[in-house]
């Protein structure tokens, strides 16, 4: 059963309406969010998630979110959770009601991890590469495109996942129009060759990944080499393993890209999961 | 006072919450909308607006919106309206609740025309050109970018308007990364030279304009030439007049682009407004 809490720490019924129709989060997708994984009552990467929420708010010229408010809401969700050992905890923060006094709408929503995600963690996924439409310089050139902000305007991300489904895959690896690897619609891409982990730089117009950062931290501590650098599409099929990381999916193995089966990275995946787990 | 109606024709209080937090319209900007201008109780371009809503729904793989439902909601808003002679009537249609039975959320909301819009209709606007990040072929190449669908994911459109404000302007003319003119964040661009009206083709990744279409219809009837064809950015300053058209703003004159004052198009604007008005 989902648990919903407001920023003042009160609990609300998630099956009852909470948002007005003129909330700009609904009318314009004008707001931001984070998804935090909670395991056995402990939120993971809480600081990086909140830092990213603050950065997204700044990119959207929104008031800085209240840490105390999201902490209250988080505690309320955790304290009222009666579900499984893992929670997908969403923080949502919108620009508030159109023509209002500028007070944002904020809440935290605790959800069960979907069975599909659990299966994907275990079995891996097939992905397709899809053009995200912009080139590698767009983020630097045009900050109003909000590339790298985690906004509620995710219709394209959802459409890309439906396109993947049409192509017989479950996930998407977005690419720039000039052939650089970006990210998944809700995940960070990691390519592994030998003992080196690589992920594209945020400056290319993607979200810096909290799970990817945790994995890189653990890997570096154990002597792996980690690189944040541009990755070209053909390098994906040449890698020893390709993974999509996110709070909820953790580190998920990509076994197929655009219909081509990749080198079996089951053992490598096991190592990365061990590294990730060692952080908690 | 805004008037809110549901697709079954019932009236709801717009100051009360109507939408659940797990509605995909809120969580993912995953839904579509239209804004219809109503003057003296008569909706303008009702058929083209509904056709475009249906087309947007198809682009997002959403169930086809019910014409009867939006008609009921529209009649309810109009019948309960106590405000001024003009209404900005919004139709909103989201993918519904996450993990639900797939029933979309739909409603119609009648709003007063903002004073700012009335002033802009009369006085014209300063606009800036902003790169929309994609090239002229992106829409054809990558339909999952939803270019040309009127989605609720408008965070970038809103960010662009804030960027215009920072640059001392009120409006934006989006351009492709390769220098073609697109549209405004919530309007269609029309460039006029002599007795010829021009607007960029929808295939370039923009919304086909209902107000622009009405104006072109009227102009053609009176012997003007109308062309739907690509427009390059430098052509804007060479034109006799540049206009942004939308349901709510009607045909609004652009008097300044990127800080450069354009040729005075006040008289031309008067002619276009007369043409537009002749349609109703």
UniProtKB/TrEMBL annotation, chains A, B:
It comes from Kibdelosporangium phytohabitans. Signal peptide: none annotated. Keywords: Lyase. GO terms for cellular component: cytosol. This is 4-amino-4-deoxychorismate lyase. PANTHER family: AMINO-ACID AMINOTRANSFERASE, AMINODEOXYCHORISMATE LYASE. GO terms for molecular function: lyase activity. InterPro entries: Aminotrans_IV, Aminotransferase-like, BCAT-like_C, BCAT-like_N, Class-IV_PLP-Dep_Aminotrnsfr. SUPFAM superfamilies: D-aminoacid aminotransferase-like PLP-dependent enzymes. It comes from the Bacteria. Belongs to the class-IV pyridoxal-phosphate-dependent aminotransferase family.
């Amino acid at each position: 059963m989902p648990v919903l809490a407001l920023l003042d720490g009160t609990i609300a019924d998630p099956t009852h309406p909470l948002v007005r129709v003129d909330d700009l989060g609904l009318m314009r997708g004008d707001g931001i969010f984070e998804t935090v994984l909670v395991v056995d009552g402990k939120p993971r990467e809480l600081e990086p998630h909140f830092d990213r929420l603050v950065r997204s708010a700044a990119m959207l010229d929104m008031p800085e979110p209240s840490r105390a408010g999201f902490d209250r809401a988080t505690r309320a969700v955790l304290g009222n959770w009666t579900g499984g050992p893992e929670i997908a905890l969403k923080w949502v923060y919108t620009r508030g009601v159109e023509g209002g006094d500028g007070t944002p709408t904020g809440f935290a929503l605790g959800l069960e991890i979907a069975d599909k995600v659990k299966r994907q963690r275990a079995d891996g996924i097939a992905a397709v590469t899809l053009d995200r439409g912009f080139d590698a310089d767009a983020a630097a050139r045009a900050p109003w495109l909000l590339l790298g902000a985690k906004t509620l305007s995710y219709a394209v991300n959802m459409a890309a996942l439906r396109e993947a489904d049409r192509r017989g895959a479950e996930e998407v690896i977005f690419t720039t129009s000039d052939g650089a690897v970006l990210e998944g619609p809700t995940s960070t891409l990691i390519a592994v060759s030998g003992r080196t982990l690589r992920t594209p730089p945020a400056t290319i117009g993607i979200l810096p990944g909290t799970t990817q950062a945790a994995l890189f931290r653990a890997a570096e501590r154990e002597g792996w080499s980690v690189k944040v650098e541009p990755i070209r599409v053909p390098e994906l099929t040449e890698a020893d393993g390709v993974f999509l990381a996110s709070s909820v999916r953790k580190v998920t193995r990509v076994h197929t890209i655009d219909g081509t089966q990749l080198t079996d990275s089951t053992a490598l995946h096991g190592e990365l999961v061990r590294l990730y787990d060692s952080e908690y």
